[in-house]
Amino acid sequence: MATSILFMHILNGLAYGMLLFMIAAGLSIIFGLMNIVNLAHGAFYLGGVYIAYSLVQQNLGFWLAMIASIVLVAGLGVLMERFLLERVYGKELEQVLLTFGLSFIFADLVKWIWGTSPLALPVPSSLDVSLDMGGTMFPAYRLFVILVGCLLAVLLWYMENKTRIGAIIRAGVDDRQMLSALGINIKVVFTSIFAVGAALAGLSGVLGGPIMGMYVGIDSEILVSSLVIVVVGGLGTWKGAFIGAILVGLVDTLGRVWFPSLTMAMVFVIMIIVLLIKPNGLFGRGAHA
Amino acid sequence: MLKLEDVHTYYGYSHILQGLSFSVPKGKCVALLGRNGAGKTTTIHSIAGLTPPRTGRISYLDKPISGLPPYKIARHGIGLVPQGRRIFPSLTIRENLIVPAKDSRQTEAGQKKWDLEAVFELFPVLKEREQNMGTQLSGGQQQMLAIGRALMTNPQCILMDEPSEGLAPVIIEQVGEIITRLKDTGLSILLVEQNFYLACGAADHVLVMSKGQIVWQGSPTELLANEEIQHQYLGV
Ligand SMILES: Nc1ncnc2c1ncn2[C@@H]1O[C@H](COP(=O)(O)OP(=O)(O)OP(=O)(O)O)[C@@H](O)[C@H]1O
Ligand SMILES: [Mg+2]
């Protein structure tokens, strides 16, 4: 294979990895902090892309539609955490049933409102060009997605490691009870983190729409990959989610090119190898109390 | 200023605190002694709201606090220095100190106001190593960090659960001095201890606890003279 084509596949893999990162980052930090596996996290992706689609249909323009959609999805996240998840903290079986059930409800809701035929979110016109990269043409929009993903990673890293909010979140992952005894209202922390996680997944949906297409079922595909990333990267860290997402994004994309029938198997093989070497994931801190 | 009346606390069906009543007067240090499993930590956790009592009253500055969530109790001005120190391992020393909620209560006249600077002044070693991870400190220094962290909520009353646990005798002596200095700043202290001599050195009043009840109370000098109590309940 010509190196230029390989290079293109790598860029595609990175773009996909960035979309996965935005989902897995929220999933991982929610898992690490609140001890909850949100199996309905894919619904925020769906919500993001479908709401943006409708707003674009209303001639709102891609960027405004993106912002409005993210805000709405974050609001949905707040409602879900406040009224539903809060009742099942510490009850694992109930959490799985509730969030799994919610993912079906949201998927059906999307079918009901938007129908079952695949739709497409158009690439924003300002980025609807291809760039000449050493002989091959590459869509500028995908480069933009990679850029956004990297900027977001830097921003989240900064927030996590250089701010008091970040310190409070890490302290919460370490020892929630102690944190509350220091005067921190852990409920507010939980709700805010949940909203941020939902917003990130919504952003992933909007940005992913023009690349991945829109259909019900993509939420569960993306959720499975994101769960693998959380396991590979380690719970409760943005850094782990970032590296894990790039890894899974590249393996998935290159796998589809070279061994189309083995792609998913390869992703899981990677997960098993990482777990054998580092049971807590690449950047995991170990089980917490 | 801190008062417990007939407090009963349970873990599921096990009845741990069985009608506990005592109070910590303003500016005083009260020591709570007892063997392993007597219910000392449960007492502290009941006050802090981590294991809320099922019945009974806990009040602070004449306001009821039992039933409030832990963060509200902390914001009322009660600081916790927990058993085992519970330093946040993924935080630096400085971060461990800035995480606690900044308080918005007014300090009473004459009471010391605690902030990062004041804590660093009390424990200069924390300032020297502020960028190190909290868990890289020695046991005694971690104890200072746990105390400093509790002070950052600017409490008027502080709950200390076995601050001498696992420390070398020289360091235990230092802990005793720190407690005395804190008391001199006007703080009220509830000191849970297994170390009989540390407690008797620092406290104004001593409570002895067994099986979830107060079985003896008096001054440190009375306890030092009472060998029967020492043998029966403290294994001295
Ligand atoms: N989470 C829990 N669930 C059930 N029982 C508990 C729990 N924590 C403590 N206990 C029981 O409650 C009793 C009192 O425990 P507590 O921790 O208050 O004792 P303590 O006086 O602090 O002991 P130590 O000196 O060892 O710290 C013990 O019998 C203990 O086994
Ligand atoms: Mg104890």
List its salient traits.
heterodimer, A: 289 residues, mainly alpha, two-stranded antiparallel ribbon, 11 helices, 74% helix, globular, B: 236 residues, alpha/beta, Rossmann fold, six-stranded mixed beta sheet, four-stranded antiparallel beta sheet, 10 strands, binds adenosine-5'-triphosphate, binds magnesium ion, transmembrane (chain A), membrane (chain A), amino-acid transport (chain A), transmembrane transporter activity (chain A), BCAA_transport_permease (chain A)
Structure notes:
The complex is a heterodimer of chains A (289) and B (236). With 289 residues, chain A is mainly alpha-helical. Chain A has one domain (2-216). Chain A contains 11 helices and 2 strands, in the order ααααββααααααα. Chain A has a two-stranded antiparallel sheet with strand order 1-2. In chain A, helix 10 (238-258) packs antiparallel against helix 11 (263-277). The model of chain A has no long low-confidence stretch (mean pLDDT 90). By secondary structure, chain B is α/β, with parallel strands linked by helices. Chain B folds into 2 domains: 1-76 and 204-236, 3-Layer(aba) Sandwich (Rossmann fold), CATH 3.40.50.300; 88-103 and 111-192, P-loop containing nucleotide triphosphate hydrolases (Rossmann fold, 3-Layer(aba) Sandwich). Chain B is 35% helix and 26% strand. Chain B has 10 helices and 10 strands. Chain B has helices at 40-48, 70-75, 93-98, 116-122, 124-128, 139-151, 169-184, 196-202, 220-225, 227-234; strands at residues 2-11, 14-24, 29-33, 55-60, 63-64, 78-81, 157-161, 188-193, 205-210, 213-218. Chain B has a 6-stranded mixed beta sheet, with helices on both faces. In chain B, strand 1 (2-11) and strand 2 form a beta hairpin. In chain B, helix 7 (169-184) runs parallel beside helix 8 (196-202). The relative contact order of chain B is 0.19. Classes of the chains: A mainly alpha (289), B alpha/beta (236). The A-B interface holds A 164, 167-168, 170-171, 173-175, 177-186, 285 and B 48-50, 69-71, 74-75, 80, 82, 86, 88-91, 95-96, 98-101, 103, 149-150, 152-153. Bound molecules: adenosine-5'-triphosphate and magnesium ion. Magnesium ion binds next to helix 1 of chain B.
